[in-house]
Amino acid sequence: MEFVKAKITDVEPIHALINYYAEKGLMLARPRTMLYESLREFTVARDQGKVVAAGSLHIIWEDIAEVRALAVAPEYAKKGVGRKLVDMFIEEAGELGLPRLFALTYQQVFFEKCGFHVVPKESLPQKVWKECVNCPKFPNCEEIAMILDVQIQG
Description:
Radius of gyration: 15 Å
Shape: globular
Structural class: alpha+beta
Number of strands: 7
Low-confidence stretches: none
Oligomer: single chain
Order of helices and strands: EHHEEEHEHEE
Largest sheet: 7 strands, mixed
Strand content: 25-35%
């Protein structure tokens, strides 16, 4: 299995993966436009050339970034693939000098295993909410806010 930055040809598989879980109410749907516009933020896991997981590190401000749109194909779930992506985002955040990562998620247990802890949504900076106003669930968001302090590297 290889973990690499996403390419244009990965947009459709990423879209299918995310929306598979969105249809089950396990994560928010993402339109293709968002995927194309933020493609450079995405990392994918490929097994024999097939995208089996994806996620992105989205910088919000000088001191915080979001792990977002993290999805793993069902047949690869619970095999460490999602954890490897999160670990890569934590490392990248440290290299960039970002001291905090957060996730808005329905998957609290997974993110706790990755070292995140629950915080009140209101404790996140206003910049975090700039995209939430366009969400169909706003203002009645059921996602859990979780945060992780990152070790800054060199």
